[in-house]
Amino acid sequence: MASKTNDNVILCIGAGYVGGPTMAVIADKCPEIKVIVADINPERINAWNSDKLPIYEPGLDAVVKRARNRNLFFTTDVAASVREAGLIFVSVNTPTKTFGIGAGKAADLQYWEKTARFIVEHAESDKIVIEKSTLPVRTAEAMHRILQSNSKGLNFEVLSNPEFMAEGTAIEDLEKPDRVLIGGMETASGRAALEKLASVYAHWVPQDRILRTNVWSSELSKLVANAMLAQRVSSINSISMLCEKTDADITEVSKAVGMDSRVGSKFLKAGVGFGGSCFKKDILNMVYLCEHYNLPEVAAYWEQVIKMNDCQERNFVNKIISNMFNTVAGKKIAIFGFAFKADTGDTREAPAIYVSKWLLDEKAELAIFDPEALPSAKKDLEGCKGKIEYVNDPYEAVKGAHAIALITDWKLFKSLDYDKIFSLMEKPSFIFDGRNILDHEALYKKGFNVFPLGKHSLTHLE
Ligand code: NAD
Ligand code: UDX
What we know:
The chain has 462 residues and is an alpha/beta fold.
């Protein structure tokens, strides 16, 4: 006879960028609930149990310190954790498939499916299984089938509870979410499971921000939210190219457009292109779904968002080369920032990877500085031919450099001593501000040739 679920023990399988912070916040907000985060990667778990957490995220250390070994536990014993918990979040990685049918577009569900089978194998009581990973719409159906195929007489409820936090602001986003989305099956037991999960979030999230939907809407909404955000970035980036041709200024255009309350001001910052582990992967996933459901125009519409992003990254490199007299061969270029955005050490799909590789192809010599992402940068550029230095000091990076390519919007770049930097660089000195965060007039006055994005350049070269 199956035992009842233990709703006071929550497990998350997958201790990554999502699993770690989300569970730390749940544990912090719900001291009476035991929260276990389990992963097959012992290095990651050791790091979660140490003073140097495996991910850099502002505010995370404090939350983990408060809850760890009180009601928050990190372990590699996934099987024992499955047996113990009543609610199981699955937060394993769901990268783009690199092989077989759907390669390059569809989500690779192997880690997710292994986890479902693992839960079936080790469960000894009923469970509520919660999709926290981002998954193609209708995955819950497959998950439910696998879970219900058990011969132990156990009942599994499947919920979708996608995560909307962004890296760099994860703790803030988790503590004060715009909304928490929970999708459940439209059955009595499905509704009861949904309410059980809602009661966890109700510890700190107001009821009107806990959105209850059917499971398919929930799965699809996650993909759509990311696609819409990425689409805004690609839209404004496309306009930055038009600005460069017409003497319009992208910052002014963005402000003017964003002040229309129907449009809104967020996600309208032009840059060197969007990165991160989610946008590209989730749009490709949606494109694949559209193709699968025979909606070629819809697929092509969303695919264009990615093509635009590739074009923006390439454009940044073309601008560097053409303005440095059509050659960067043998020239040192300081790369300011490698992470895909500020306040994270994550470099997954970071524009800096592509920009660096293209510059190396042109035989430029790179000196890369990033306050958090150097270890990842080294891995990303492993095997690349050419001279690459990884430096912990921005002033070291610019010594003898012909140009600075600013790729990540780290705040610290705004407060560097640019007089000192100018004195350390080769002349003429170039700055390509891929995020428009520097004071371009001031840099020009110091003697730099300044190339912002989507607005006119300021040069001493004519
Ligand atoms: P990640 O790669 O950082 O973490 C995934 C973890 O799962 C890894 O530590 C891996 O070892 C572990 N894992 C894989 N298979 C396992 C198994 N069978 N048993 C136990 N552990 C296993 O990934 P992430 O960035 O945390 O993303 C996880 C999911 O959340 C993805 O679907 C992603 O799309 C989604 N998501 C990510 C973000 C983000 O900002 N990173 C935001 C929202 C949603
Ligand atoms: C994204 C989603 O925002 C989040 O809701 C989801 O859960 C995971 O994916 P994340 O990738 O962590 O989060 O960062 P995000 O802040 O969305 O930025 C993505 C990329 O877009 C970054 O490279 C960022 O620099 C870029 N971006 C963002 C711009 O270029 N301009 C903008 O105006 C906003």
